[in-house]
Amino acid sequence: MVTISTKELQGAFIIPHYADGSTPEFQKKVIDDTINGIFNQTDNSWKAIIIDDCSTDKNIIEHLKNIKNNFPEKIEVKFLTQNVGPGICRNIGVLWALKQGCDILLFNDSDDISHPKRLEIVKDIFQQDSNIGLIYSTFMVIDENNNLTPLEKISPPILEILESHKRKPLEGKDVWIKMGTDNGYTNKTSSTAVRTNIAYHCLFPNERASEDYHTWMRMSAYGAYYRYTPIIPTKYRIPSFMKYQMSRTRIGPNNFNKIKSRVDSDGFSKAIEMALIKGSIKPQDVPILKTKFYRRLASSMHIDGEIELEKELLAIAESFSIEGKLYINNYAGI
């Protein structure tokens, strides 16, 4: 049943930020592009918080202080004294937005640019149906100069996400199941908006890779109805001098995939636990779901050239497949 909300919703942009000073002019440019993207919103009912994750570039820190001082009514900046990673930074932003009375959160990484109508569109969707808990859109890959990146120059993991948007995008209830067993990573952080109360109950884990995917699966298992809209694509930045996005580049592709596999597995397991408590799945479903999950994850690793990791994941999938067959035989009384 669609329930229309009459309350005027307030949005908060949550922006984790880190600058190491390696490319000072570029790092200053991208945060300015991000802030300009927020000020260009057609709906002005927003606040924003930048959570600086103990940046080592003093000039950038001064620049952020100036932003805060120039726009005190719209932008808050918190400076952390310890580097904690983007997930924990977002959690700090979630708690701040909750205290500010903001109803919806729009996650926006510090190098990405929101569509000018992003807040207007997501707010309208949220107000038209109070059952919807999370809205995501597609994205366009841009380089350091904000130029669109040709498809042939986009890495396989990113193409995999874009391809899932061209097929039937995930929407509705319990999308965590297909997200884990079929589509894989679905919604980029800078393209995701969520109701504040859901974000508060499903905070990001203390991880530095795939912490967002972990969170999206748990939000769905918690009860968030997903809605997809293609009309407000985020500009997702991967500089031409980097093969991968910044988090993957910083960690290193191989280490990133190892961490991603561990974090994704934990997120899917926690989503299963939540679903079992809610009664939306049964215990006998678990081995089957995990078999499909590990096979899908192995497929993603294959696409990314991680052959040894693919073999490890397929072995785990086989163990759950055997467990599932034993469970079915016992359950059937054979």
What does this molecule look like?
It is a single chain. By secondary structure, this protein is an alpha/beta fold. The chain has two domains: 11-252, Spore Coat Polysaccharide Biosynthesis Protein SpsA, Chain A (Alpha-Beta Complex); 259-331. It has helices at residues 24-39, 58-70, 86-100, 118-128, 156-166, 176-183, 196-201, 211-222, 246-251, 253-278, 286-303, 307-331, and strands spanning 11-17, 46-52, 75-79, 104-107, 132-142, 192-195, 225-237. The chain has a seven-stranded mixed β-sheet, sandwiched between helices. The model has no long low-confidence stretch (mean pLDDT 93).
Task: Describe the structure concisely for a colleague.
With about 325 residues, the chain is an alpha/beta fold.
Relevant terms:
Spore Coat Polysaccharide Biosynthesis Protein SpsA, Chain A, alpha/beta, seven-stranded mixed beta sheet, 334 residues, 15% strand, globular, single chain, 2 domains
